[in-house]
C-alpha cells in the first residue's frame, strides 16, 4: 500500500503513512500561468494499492483529486479517502433550478470507475452517499472527540455536551454517552449563510456553573457556535469549549467564537488547521487494514 497525500491533506496523509508504516508518495503540485493546476505523482505506484487522501474544501481540491485519480492509473487498486467531503450540505434542491451539489461531486469522481473503495468521515447526511456508485464506507470520528473530551474533563470540572441543533444530536450522544457525560441539544433556525437564531429554552440537564463542550459536525462561519455560546452563557454556563469533526473556520469564525465567550476550539485533522488537536489517522489506518471496521453504505 502506498499513500498519496493530496493538496488539502498533506499532514494527515503523512500521519496515515506513518501509522501503517508504508510509503508516502511525494507529488508535485503547481499552477500554470493561466491558473490551471498541474499535478504529478512522483513515486512509482505501478501495480501497487494506491491510497489517495484528499479533503474537498474547495473547487481546486476537487480538481486535484480528479487529477490524482487519473495520475494513479498504473496502480492495481485505488482507494480514495475524502476526510472532509465538501458540498455535502447542498444535498437537495431547495429552490427550482438548483444543482444538487453533492450529486454532481459524486458523479464527477465515480463516473469513470477508476476507484475501488471510497472512505469518507462523518458526512453531513449519510443518506447522500447513495449518489456514489462505488463501495463507499463512512468512518466515525465521534469516539475520538469523546476520548479527547474525557481526557480534558480530568483536568477541568465535569463537562456536559451540547449540540447546537437537532442535526447534532447523534454526534452529541456518540461523544457523550460512552463516557457517561450528560448531553442535550439546542434548537437552531438558520437566517442566512452566516446568521442563525437559537431560542433560549429549558434544557433537560442542568448547565448552571457547569463547563460545556458544544459539539458539531462542521464549523464554517462560526455563527452557529457563537449563538449557542451566547445562549448558554446567558443561562450561567461555566467555561465553553467547542469540538467539531470538520473545522473549516471561514471568514472571521475564530474571532467570532472567541468573542462569544468560547474558551477553546478543538477539531480533527480532516481539515488541517491550528486547531486540529485530534487526528483521525489511526481511524483511517485501521479501516484501510480492516475495511469491515468502517460502516458500508448500502
Ligand atoms: C449545519 O447543519 C451544520 O451541522 C453546522 O451546524 C453548520 O454547518 C455550521 O455552520 P456555521 O459555522 O457557518 O454556523
Structural description of this entry:
The protein is of the alpha/beta class and 298 residues long. The chain has 2 domains: 2-140 and 280-296, 3-Layer(aba) Sandwich (Rossmann fold), CATH 3.40.50.2020; 142-278, Rossmann fold (3-Layer(aba) Sandwich), CATH 3.40.50. The chain is 28% helix and 27% strand. The chain has helices spanning 10-20, 59-71, 101-110, 142-155, 169-176, 223-234, 253-259, 281-289, and strands spanning 2-5, 23-24, 27-31, 37-41, 49-53, 77-82, 117-121, 135-139, 159-163, 183-185, 188-190, 196-198, 211-219, 240-247, 262-268, 276-278, 295-296. Strands 2-1-5-6-7-8-17 form a 7-stranded mixed β-sheet, sandwiched between helices. Strand 3 (27-31) and strand 4 form a beta hairpin. The two termini are 26 Å apart. Ribose-5-phosphate is lined by residues 164-165, 167, 196, 216-224.
Q: Report low-confidence residues grouped into runs of 5 or more.
A: none
Mean pLDDT: 94
State the order of secondary-structure elements, H for helix, E for strand.
Answer: EHEEEEHEHEEHEHEEEEHEHEEHE
Tell me, briefly, the overall form. globular
Biggest sheet strand order reads: 2-1-5-6-7-8-17
Question: What are the distinct ligands in this entry?
Answer: ribose-5-phosphate
* Strands, count: 17
CATH C-level class of the largest domain is: Alpha Beta
Instruction: Estimate the helix proportion, in percent.
Output: 25-40%
Query: Which second-level CATH architecture of the largest domain applies?
Result: 3-Layer(aba) Sandwich
Main sheet makeup: 7 strands, mixed
Radius of gyration, CA atoms, in whole angstroms: 20 Å
Amino acid at each position: 500500500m502506498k499513500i498519496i497525500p493530496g493538496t488539502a491533506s498533506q499532514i494527515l496523509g503523512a500521519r496515515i503513512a506513518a501509522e501503517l508504516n508504508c510509503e508516502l508518495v511525494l507529488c508535485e503540485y503547481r499552477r500554470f500561468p493561466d491558473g490551471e493546476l498541474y499535478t504529478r505523482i512522483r513515486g512509482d505506484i505501478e501495480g501497487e494499492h494506491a491510497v489517495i487522501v484528499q479533503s474537498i474544501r474547495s473547487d481546486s481540491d476537487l480538481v486535484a483529486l480528479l487529477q490524482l485519480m487519473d495520475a494513479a492509473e498504473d496502480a492495481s487498486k485505488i482507494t480514495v479517502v475524502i476526510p472532509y467531503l465538501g458540498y455535502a450540505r447542498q444535498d437537495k434542491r431547495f429552490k427550482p433550478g438548483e444543482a444538487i451539489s453533492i450529486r454532481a461531486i459524486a458523479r464527477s469522481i465515480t463516473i469513470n470507475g477508476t476507484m475501488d473503495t471510497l472512505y469518507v468521515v462523518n458526512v453531513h447526511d449519510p443518506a447522500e452517499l447513495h449518489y456514489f456508485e462505488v463501495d463507499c464506507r463512512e468512518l466515525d470520528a465521534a469516539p475520538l472527540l469523546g476520548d479527547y473530551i474525557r481526557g480534558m474533563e480530568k483536568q477541568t470540572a465535569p463537562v456536559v455536551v451540547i449540540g447546537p441543533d437537532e442535526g447534532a444530536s447523534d454526534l452529541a450522544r456518540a461523544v457523550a454517552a460512552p463516557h457517561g457525560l450528560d448531553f442535550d441539544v439546542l434548537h437552531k433556525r438558520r437566517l442566512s449563510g452566516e446568521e442563525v437564531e437559537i431560542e433560549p429554552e429549558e434544557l433537560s440537564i442542568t448547565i448552571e456553573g457547569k463547563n460545556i463542550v458544544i459539539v458539531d459536525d462542521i464549523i464554517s462561519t462560526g455563527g452557529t457556535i457563537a449563538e449557542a455560546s451566547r445562549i448558554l452563557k446567558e443561562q450561567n454556563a461555566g467555561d465553553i469549549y467547542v469540538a467539531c469533526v470538520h473545522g473549516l473556520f471561514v471568514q472571521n469564525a475564530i474571532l467570532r467564537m472567541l468573542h462569544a465567550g468560547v474558551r477553546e476550539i478543538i477539531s480533527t485533522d480532516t481539515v488541517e488547521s491550528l486547531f486540529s488537536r485530534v487526528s483521525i489517522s489511526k481511524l483511517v489506518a485501521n479501516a484501510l487494514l480492516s475495511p469491515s471496521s468502517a460502516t458500508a453504505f448500502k
